[in-house]
Amino acid sequence: MNLLKNQLLYVYLNGSIHVSLAVFALTQMTFYFCGLPFDLFTSLMVFSGTLFSYNFIKYASLIRSVRFSISPSLKVIVGLSLLALLVGTYSFLQLHTKAQLVTLGLLFLSVLYAIPISKKIPNLRNLAGLKVYIVCFCWAVVTVVVPVINASQELNLDILIKCVQRFILVLVLIGIFEIVDLQHDSLSLKTLPQQLGITTTKWFLSFLLLPFYTLEFFKIGYHSIQAWNNLAIVTLTLFFIWFATPKRTKFYTLFWVESIPIIWWLIIVFQQGTLFTQ
């Protein structure tokens, strides 16, 4: 029984299901912030696209190298990824043309992120210092811009602020990952803790939460309840920043840190009394 639980947990975390739920949760937050009704196809596309793209980036080269000698858990992950590709493709075809074009742009960026560009530049993932900002940009666009465009809404100041907030939040979460992964990351990646040290990185990440929080007050559609919700998320994130060390296990980041967007959404669910906007 314990072996089965461990295998299920492995597939859940390493099969990118949890991180896909985090991206899905941020998309639901956009529906809530913008007063948009729940969009099934956008939600499915975001979840499935995240799951497939993350697994493709992580496992494509591994599967090619070992061919058929892959573990049962990895076979399940491959199967889930292929299913996600089918669901994501179908959902993509249901989107409006503008949303499809933006999504294709993100797809192109994801391909460059995973596939070698040249002999000197293996892929964007290995470009020192650039990886983080690509991920932050993709999360911000796919969870804010795509849902808004597909709902035929204008990209106004509020949307820009939301994008900046998402960018900052993801940057902070990745910074926590980099602290925990410090012992394993190649020095060529030039991560924040490699360049600044652990303590300075923690202060820097904490400082970034200040604009994340204060930008809320500059929105045209400002709601006081959201200021309190954001304060709860800032407090929770600060906890994970200052308790992060290279001695932490991957579970600390893969589950707990990536749960922050999900918790943010669940706070709204609790307040609204429903999982999805009406």
From TrEMBL:
This is Prenyltransferase. The chain crosses the membrane at residues 12-34, 40-61, 73-93, 99-118, 130-152, 164-182, 203-221, 227-244, 251-270. It comes from Myroides pelagicus. It comes from the Bacteria. Keywords: Membrane, Transmembrane, Transmembrane helix.
